[in-house]
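mind reviewing both lines:
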Amino acid sequence: MLHVTEARYTSGKTIWVSFDDSASGEIDLTGHLQGPVFEILKDDAELAKLKFDEELETVVWPNGADFAPEFLRSLLSEIPAKQRSA
């Protein structure tokens, strides 16, 4: 089972996350803030309020929003189309 070990806001819609499988890096959440609980996070100031929850071992926000570590890890693995064709 995958777990987040550290997280912080970087800028815009981007956060930096470290996982217990030794992977880490920036994750762009643009396009992934869908649904009522994530709507407020479209405001960068609200997105910046992220916390690493040691009990849940993932990224959470004060309004109750969170992402599964597996989902976050899949975004870290994505390679933008412009880089794939290079």
